[in-house]
Amino acid sequence: MALREDRIGQTWLVPKRLTDFIPENHISYFIANLVEELDFKDIDRKYRHTRGKAAYSRRMLLRLVIMASVDGIFSSRQIAKHTEENMVYMYLSGMDKPDFRTICRFKIECTEQIEEAFKMTVNVAKKAGLVQLKHIAIDGTKIKANASSSNLINEEEINTIREILKKGIQTDVEENKIYGDKRGDEIPKDLTSRKKVQEIIQKIREENNDTSNENNLRKSSYNLLKQAVISKKQEKKVHQKLDLAEEQLKKTAQKTVSLTDPESRWMKNKKNRMEFSYNMQIAVDYNSGIILASSITQDPTDHHQLIPQIEQINEILGPLSEDTKFSADNGYYTRKNLKYLEENGIDGYIPNRKQVYETKPRLKKAKPFSKHNFAYYYTDDLYICPNNKKLSYKKTYNYKDVRMRQYYCSDCLKCPDQLKCVGKDRLRVITDYGNDLSKKMALKMETPKGKQEFAKRKQTVEWPFGNIKENLKFTEFYTRGIKQTKTEKNLLSISHNLKRIYNQTQNKTKINNHSNT
Asked: Which fold does the domain 136-141+278-354+443-489 belong to in CATH?
């Protein structure tokens, strides 16, 4: 067997192009063609005929961040490093080497172009015949925010810090001789000592006749006070942080926000632990796995996300066919959503709690007398309890504009399981919160067709989330604030769609070549 010669350091007599080192069917060419179709006229106009060093091409920077997202790279420093070491990135950058700050600023500045690139991937997939739009699944997942769960602040602390800063300025004026020759509007440095702060807190509480302990400050609040002491500029920044935190507290029912990212919200993750997160929503085509719509929301629940997802699909692809079916889990089961589906003639499949409960045998066994174990018979309009007793319809009443129907029977007093079911000397009452829309949906979900359509949801929508979290290793946002996390979300969606389009195109090419031979 012959041994190849080690040719490190060899000089090429004829200079080669970068594309000579990149495979002909590499995804980078596909990315370059995609970005070439985007309109950068408005944003390029900002840089033309202006003083200073020439700015990097926005089109080139977009090629880089999209290629990086396909490779699972979201750090601007890593992208900048690749432009110096990786042939693919050198090709996409045209041998330019933007630093990480330039890439960071680009992501903030060109959010619209990145969003347009996502929409373009959807339309490209449709034109290629990959998107069938026969069945669309909608779901959400929580992604951890780039926010510290220990750097918290609440409304009481905000008010207390402002009072302390105000007191500090007054104290500085009164004790100018003690603190030396100053302007008279600075905050004394010993104001941030815990002892001094506690004295001021106590004085504030006495003035407000407050006997509670709610004005005690966390370590993060003391750090804000220390920051305010440094200079008037830093004091101004502290007030800006307080204003932003206060603004977000007014928008949420949650009592605390994170100072590092006030726009994030407390959400429960898969391990049932609370952490600051954002809720990422996607709508996925069943046949192709293409993400048709995506959004980022601060809402921990999915109740209000169904309508925005459907409307975003209509915005990108136009009105959908009446044959298009939608599926979503019980988190989207609300009267508003059911009414929207009915009024717009959309064939949707969303299970109610009882139907979800029936798919979990452990819960049924643990709570045998739960309402979900009472079978309802539509033809006779009655419920049958686990001990085969009939609970007939008795009366209807309205509560908050919702029609409530009650069912019960008198046999409960003789039942041996009375204590387990309802308690001593009581009758079991079943209250039906349903209306005609919910009953219609329940009947649809019980049919073989309904079960078959809903079964498509899990194998459709879990796929992109698995790709994002497992393959791309994206389990936490790199940026802060809903505007910048939205840009990251768009890059994730672009990455997933490009891989699907590229792989499907390559498979078709292989099949055609094989059939021709």
From this structure: Nucleotidyltransferase; domain 5 (3.30.420)
